[in-house]
Design brief:
alpha+beta, disordered C terminus
Length: about 500
């Protein structure tokens, strides 16, 4: 029953994740950002190259069990020849050809190939993990830009409102309706708001530059991302899926499996080895030997079986076995450490996601309440029951609640996607990304596994990832409006100046 529940949950997440990014087809959607990063981010392209290098360990291991053919040649010129040695020529040329066919190597080749193949599987899982981590970073960068644009927008509007308040305060001070203290309070609050705006603009520029770093292009008019799929109902359900499908944990387990074969390779170093050998030799005295009945050149060949039996190697094989066993112990501990990390990561992401949902609900209520509060405080100020400081405080509380709301929405979305990634369901195939064919690491493995040509190669590599050196420096210009429920006007009641109305800041 538990397995059935896990399977059903996994299927639901896969289907939901595939629809996650099926929103608008414009160039500035979350889908487009992910496609760009998938195609040109140097982290993922570099990991693909690392995986291709890992694939080559299989043919390297197989080569030790294949026949080897070597040739040598030399020409010797004897400068000083003994007078009593009539068969010592002045010059001789020799050539040899040696063929060796391994017949038995104590299981070293078989286990080395299995270890290499297992590490290929671990590398593929690691590539999946890098891919999921990249998409998580894209989501975070995307949502950071949206959040910081909203915060800059809110702070800009707050500065505008405080400037209007300051002008009204000065006007009322001129007619004796307010004191110098009221004007000073308005000036101080405006200066503080301008400082907050500068800080928010700096954060926005930083978020945009980070977006350029991850995605490769500047963010322009980012659209709101589509809703996340239904997430698990409890952290335990999420952990159950992650322990079965998280790519980092799969990679750690397969890396530990490979060390079992490494131990057998080390043990093979103290076992006998058998090989079939054959050699052919050619000699030519190059006309430097004039002895009757002695040929000036000749050929000979040998065929046989070679047995190598190690008797004493100074304890080297035993040390290699102990070393391999210790490394296997380390790999097993790394698997446990990775498992712990994944469990903590899933539970943490679930807690942040759940907490952010509650913060969103509270912040939405706070925005509505603070908007009404500001209206009431302004109305009461017009009849003299509230001070200028009360208005300034109400405006600041509204701004704080609006910033809390946009921040909580960002945190909830990023935590939800991080949870999906930790569960092993946030890779390109899960998300249904288009924009070109997806990278298939198996294709390269099949291409190189059985190659035995010593002169083969893939040519000089060229960069795949795109450079961002030519991207213009980012600014804090606003490219998208505020959401309707965040865009609560902060100035909807009569202005401080009697008989006039303050402009509405939409």
């Amino acid at each position: 029953m538990r397995l059935h529940l896990t399977s059903s949950l996994t299927s639901g997440i896969l289907i939901g994740s595939a629809l996650l990014l099926a929103g608008s087809a414009s160039a500035e959607t979350l889908r487009e950002a992910m496609v760009r990063a998938y195609q040109s981010n140097p982290t993922i392209t570099g990991q693909r190259a690392a995986q291709r290098a890992t694939d080559e360990n299989v043919p390297i291991a197989r080569s030790s069990g294949l026949p080897s053919l070597q040739s040598t040649g030399q020409i010797i010129d004897n400068i000083v020849v003994a007078n009593n040695n009539f068969l010592n020529p002045e010059r001789v040329g020799t050539g040899s050809l040696q063929l060796s066919v391994p017949l038995y190597q104590g299981g070293a080749v078989k286990n080395a190939v299995r270890a290499a193949e297992t590490r290929v599987g671990a590398g593929r899982a690691q590539l999946r993990g890098v891919e999921a981590n990249l998409f998580t970073n894209v989501v975070a960068a995307y949502m950071n830009v949206i959040r910081d644009e909203a915060i800059v927008n809110l702070n800009t509007r707050n500065v505008n409102v405080l400037e209007t308040n300051l002008r009204a305060s000065r006007d009322r001070f001129q007619v004796g309706d307010l004191t110098r203290t009221d004007v000073a309070q308005s000036e101080a609050r405006l200066a503080q708001a301008r400082a907050q705006l500068q800080s928010a603009q700096a954060n926005l520029i930083s978020s945009r530059e980070n977006y350029v770093n991850i995605v490769g292009v500047a963010p322009v008019g980012l659209e709101q991302p589509p809703a996340l799929p239904a997430l698990p109902g409890s952290p335990n359900a999420a952990v159950a899926v992650a322990l079965d499908q998280n790519p980092q944990l799969i990679a750690a387990r397969r890396a530990a499996d490979a060390t079992r074969y490494d131990i057998n390779v080390a043990r093979a170093n103290r076992l006998p080895r058998v090989a079939a050998v054959s050699s052919g030799n050619y000699f030519n005295y190059l006309g430097s030997l004039n002895v009757p009945n002695v040929p000036a050149s000749g050929v000979n060949a040998t065929v046989g079986v070679q047995l190598s039996m190690p008797l004493f190697q100074g304890g080297r094989p035993a040390a290699q076995v102990r070393q391999a066993e210790a490394l296997r112990g380390q790999a097993l501990e790394n698997t446990t450490a990775t498992e712990r990390q994944i469990v903590a990561q899933v539970r943490s992401a679930y807690a942040v996601w759940q907490s952010s949902q509650e913060v969103i609900a509270s912040a939405e209520s706070a925005v509505r309440a603070n908007s009404l509060s500001l209206e009431g405080v302004r109305a009461e100020n017009s009849v003299g029951t509230r001070t200028v400081l009360d208005i300034l405080n109400a405006e600041q509380e509204l701004l704080n609640s609006q910033v809390t709301l946009v921040t909580a929405r960002r945190d909830a979305y990023v935590a939800g996607f991080a949870l999906i990634a930790a569960m092993g369901n946030a890779e390109a195939r899960d998300l249904g990304l288009d924009g070109g064919s997806l990278y298939d690491p198996v294709a390269n493995y099949k291409r190189v596994r059985n190659k035995i040509n010593d002169w083969d190669g893939d040519g000089e590599p060229v960069p795949v990832a795109t450079t961002t050196a030519g991207t213009p420096a980012q600014t804090a210009a606003i490219t998208r409006p505020l959401d309707a429920d965040v865009n609560a006007p902060v100035d909807r009641s009569p202005a401080l100046t009697t008989g006039t109305s303050a402009p509405s800041r939409q």
